[in-house]
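Lay summary. Proteins are chains of building blocks that fold into shapes, and those shapes determine what they do. In this project we predict the shape from the chain. Here is one chain we studied, written as its sequence of building blocks.
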Amino acid sequence: LLDCTVGEVQADREAAARRLAGMYHCIAVLKGRGTLIATPGGEVYHNPTGSAGLAKGGSGDVLTGVIASLMAQRADALRAAAVGVWLHGRAGDLAEQELTAYSVTPEDVVRKLPDAIREILE
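And here is the predicted shape, written in a compact code that computers can read:
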């Protein structure tokens, strides 16, 4: 999407997220340690939740589903991305506490989403 290497993205993740959001006029989510959410206007938000347990195939599909669900409930794109990223990361943290980073699966993250939601509501 950015016509550059993974190494170039990792060297300056914030700039990469900003560039992606600007190029495509979208809210961009750059997964990884400290997932970033960028706006077309250049704002970048850093997510504090999430851990190595989310570095698995299918984890991004769960994140996409959470964000899409929030948008279907009429959250705007930025709010859906920011809340979705936080919920996904927190659910991953909770799953990892129970199972270890090595054994967390995307299904475990989905199972912990109600607990993460409960934390927001309390």
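What the prediction tells us: The chain has a mean pLDDT of 97.
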